Amino acid sequence: MATSQTQNPLKTPFSQLSIKEHKPWFYKPRHLTITAAHPHLSGRKLRAAVIGGGPAGSSAAETLASGGIETFLFERSPSTAKPCGGAIPLCMIDEFSIPLHLIDRHVTKMKIISPSNIAVDFGSKSLRSHESIPMLRREVLDSFLRARAQSAGAQLIPSLVTSLELPSSPFSPYIINHTTNNSRKTLAVDLIIGADGANSKVAKFIKAGNYTCAIAFQERIRLPDEKMEYYQNLAEMYVGDDVSPDFYAWVFPKCDHVAVGTGTVCAKQDIKLYQRGIKERVRNKIYGGKVIKVEAHPIPEHPRPVRVRGRVALVGDAAGYVTKCSGEGIYFAAKSGRMCGEAIVSASDGGERMIGEDDLKRGYLKEWDQKYVSTYRFLDLLQRVFYGSNVTREALVEICGNEYVQRMTFDSYLYKKLAKGDGWEDLKMVLGTIGSLMRCKIVGREMEAIKF
């Protein structure tokens, strides 16, 4: 028999919903279908739980709380952060009101280095005087965004979510079972936003389906002052079979150290081999450095088959919003969290009305896909064309030397819109790409023969 705490949980104060002993149970209806009109809530506000306190979860929680919804933000380990290169697009600073003191470096120069160690400067000429690529640390950004969500009214719960229970009827609550300091507790909510990363428990709970994941591995290395000066405003990207069979490796500057890392989808078991490869490539540049932290984390390669089910929505890495080719996810995580929160606030009339699956699909998923699906498809195409072999990687680096290509790339990356190009320049770019692929095919064969 259910306890009195869960008979009418949404009318019970949060502090009284915690219990010491509770055996998880699950309702498993085949479908959760809401057919009745969504009712007004009497004497209370809509209650939402956001699971995961990274950029996606914090942005969602801030938006919900600011919009009048009773919001609970679950974060298992507030003191830790996801391993991440830390680059964000320039537009994110204004769009998400990121204070400038959080930015470690304003990168104005990039180098892309080919398998044969041909380096192309990317940005020194094509970046405008007011443009840069901001670099920051995730632990700094995540902490700031969580604090801002709390200031908006979200209640931060430092707790591990262990299981979820489905509603017994269309408008009854979800039950969140969680553990804090070895104490088992429950919370009843109207809806859930899953922002709990690539290994999302929320995604498993709603049977959102699997997706392909890459593995990212990086070491933070504190360099001697003279070595760090080289990376003052410079980021480097390396491509080649020695550093990754299907992605790229990087050296990104932080406040007092650099992040040196790599990623792969198809050969996760060899990630440490590729990490040794990038460290060998940059050996002279990081000589004398001290490793201060080692990090690894899965990164989704495409959206999940299901991102909304019932009154549960996925955002950020849990939804699969990391771009191919660049591996970028911070902006898209924060943006998806905000868009999902805005859809809920709008559909619920500021927390006054219950919402349903159709509201989430219409107000969140449809808007997201219309805005960004073309970007994801384009970057997926680029990765499949250029990251498959050393031959095509040589071509990629050659193409990146073109100032028009650089300008188009920065316009798209910095401002998160597919840049509109010049028709004649676009045609020349296509012809140049074909020429590069043809030339580099010959060069690549000669290189492989020399290696053999």
TrEMBL record:
<comment type="pathway">
    <text>Cofactor biosynthesis; tocopherol biosynthesis.</text>
</comment>
<keyword id="KW-0602">Photosynthesis</keyword>
<dbReference type="GO" id="GO:0015979">
    <property type="term" value="P:photosynthesis"/>
</dbReference>
<comment type="pathway">
    <text>Porphyrin-containing compound metabolism; chlorophyll biosynthesis.</text>
</comment>
<dbReference type="GO" id="GO:0009535">
    <property type="term" value="C:chloroplast thylakoid membrane"/>
</dbReference>
<keyword id="KW-0560">Oxidoreductase</keyword>
<keyword id="KW-0521">NADP</keyword>
<dbReference type="InterPro" id="IPR011777">
    <property type="entry name" value="Geranylgeranyl_Rdtase_fam"/>
</dbReference>
<dbReference type="InterPro" id="IPR010253">
    <property type="entry name" value="BchP_ChlP_pln/prok"/>
</dbReference>
<dbReference type="InterPro" id="IPR050407">
    <property type="entry name" value="Geranylgeranyl_reductase"/>
</dbReference>
<keyword id="KW-0149">Chlorophyll biosynthesis</keyword>
<dbReference type="Pfam" id="PF22578">
    <property type="entry name" value="GGR_cat"/>
</dbReference>
<comment type="function">
    <text>Catalyzes the reduction of geranylgeranyl diphosphate to phytyl diphosphate, providing phytol for both tocopherol and chlorophyll synthesis.</text>
</comment>
<dbReference type="GO" id="GO:0045550">
    <property type="term" value="F:geranylgeranyl reductase activity"/>
</dbReference>
<dbReference type="InterPro" id="IPR036188">
    <property type="entry name" value="FAD/NAD-bd_sf"/>
</dbReference>
<comment type="similarity">
    <text>Belongs to the geranylgeranyl reductase family. ChlP subfamily.</text>
</comment>
<dbReference type="InterPro" id="IPR054715">
    <property type="entry name" value="GGR_cat"/>
</dbReference>
<dbReference type="GO" id="GO:0102067">
    <property type="term" value="F:geranylgeranyl diphosphate reductase activity"/>
</dbReference>
<dbReference type="GO" id="GO:0015995">
    <property type="term" value="P:chlorophyll biosynthetic process"/>
</dbReference>
<dbReference type="InterPro" id="IPR011774">
    <property type="entry name" value="Geranylgeranyl_Rdtase_pln/cyn"/>
</dbReference>
<protein>
    <recommendedName>
        <fullName>Geranylgeranyl diphosphate reductase, chloroplastic</fullName>
        <ecNumber>1.3.1.83</ecNumber>
    </recommendedName>
</protein>
<feature type="domain" description="Digeranylgeranylglycerophospholipid reductase catalytic">
    <location>
        <begin position="227"/>
        <end position="282"/>
    </location>
</feature>
